[in-house]
Amino acid sequence: MKAAIRYEYCTPDLLEIGRMSLPRPGNDEILVKVKATTVNRTDCGVLTGKPWAIRLFTGLFKPVRPITGTDFAGIIVDKGDNVAQFEIGDDVYGFFDQGLSSHAEYVAVSTKKAVLKKPENVTFEQAAASLEGSHYAFYFLKDLKLNAGDRILINGGTGAIGNAALQFLKHFNVRVTVTCETEFVEVLKSQGAERVIDYQKEDFTTINEQFDYVFDAVGKSSFEKCKPLLKSKGIYISSELGKNWQNAFLALLSPLMLGKKVKFPLPYTIKRSMKFINELVLNGEFIPLIDRRYKFEDIAEAYHYVLSGQKKGNIVITFD
Ligand SMILES: NC(=O)c1ccc[n+]([C@@H]2O[C@H](COP(=O)([O-])OP(=O)(O)OC[C@H]3O[C@@H](n4cnc5c(N)ncnc54)[C@H](OP(=O)(O)O)[C@@H]3O)[C@@H](O)[C@H]2O)c1
């Protein structure tokens, strides 16, 4: 089968499309013919080994898995003896943030991992694009005591995480203000944002409004800058550690703070986030934003685009 292969942590230029033998499914595994996968920010970490902490999970000195890829949507073509919940021919999708080797024509996946039947109301491309950013969005928002009518500001509504967060918050009837560039203002309004701030025209930290939560989904701002936007007991959440890991330290100190607080949630079991995502997909409440589609052979180009930090939502890789 064709696969995207590298044996060292590297830049996209050194990622090669090569041939690997077809994986044989183990007793608890399914063999999936991949119809669509994505290149996402997690893939960039798995490819480059940066930030260094990711190597604790993907291999300290070199990648444990030569084939890249963390998510997939496809059709089961074979299965192990112990697999009872899936049948050959089922459409499935799944994600694993430490690497799945899914940038390939076929992938063997343990059914103990986060893999579910693909909802019929979405395409393979949409299913593959439903997972990575949404998984993080779920965990960043999960511990907030959200009430209908609460107000939240999301910095970065066109990121994979920010865009999934916008749609999830609509599910909870939370009032969302979001930032993005001019071209996407109408798109985000159509996805349910109450107000969209064009960051090319206005600095969101200077608006004269207050929110229950500020979620910096692109990690480009700080608690200090966003503090005036928060109500007296408001909470700041960021997707990034911030300068000198300040968001993690502020989150640790937050129980001692009387007023405004910082949360820095860590994502864990994907089965839990995927269950939530799957329900929203089934209900038609979440449709992932898809930016560009690349042919599998052009996957290095897709990586370059994702690493540029300019993708809008998700980048899909398709196979003939
Ligand atoms: N803590 C964790 O566990 C964790 C896990 C995964 C990712 N992350 C981090 O979370 C961040 C977001 O990830 P992602 O996958 O959502 O990223 P992404 O999809 O690559 O986000 C890129 C998008 O953000 C927009 N953007 C960039 N700067 C902006 C700004 N100042 N204001 C408004 N929009 C801005 C870009 O739009 P323009 O082109 O218009 O600027 C682009 O559409 C990344 O920094 C990533 O490293 C954290």
In the CATH scheme, the class of the largest domain would be: Alpha Beta
What percentage of residues falls in helices of 4 or more residues? 25-40%
Q: Tell me, rounded to a whole number, the average pLDDT.
A: 97
CATH fold-level name of the largest domain? Quinone Oxidoreductase, Chain A, domain 1
Give the strand content: 25-35%
Summed up, the helix count is 10
Total E-strand runs: 15
What characterizes the major β-sheet?
A: 7 strands, mixed
Task: For this entry, give a set of tags.
10 helices, Quinone Oxidoreductase, Chain A, domain 1, binds NADP nicotinamide-adenine-dinucleotide phosphate, Rossmann fold, alpha/beta, 7-stranded mixed sheet, 320 residues, 6-stranded parallel sheet, Lipid_raft_assoc_Zn_ADH, oxidoreductase activity
Can you put this structure into words, describing what you see?
Strand 9, helix 6 (185-190) and strand 10 form a beta-alpha-beta unit. By secondary structure, this protein is of the alpha/beta class. The strands form three sheets. Strands 3, 4, 5, 6, 7, 14 and 15 form a seven-stranded mixed β-sheet that branches. The protein has helices at 41-48, 55-58, 124-128, 132-142, 160-171, 185-190, 223-226, 246-253, 270-282, 299-307; strands at 2-5, 16-19, 29-39, 71-79, 91-95, 106-110, 115-117, 151-155, 175-180, 195-198, 211-216, 230-238, 261-263, 290-295, 314-318. Bound molecules: NADP nicotinamide-adenine-dinucleotide phosphate. Residues 41, 133, 136, 155-156, 158-162, 179-181, 199, 217-220, 239-240, 267, 309-312 line the site of NADP nicotinamide-adenine-dinucleotide phosphate.
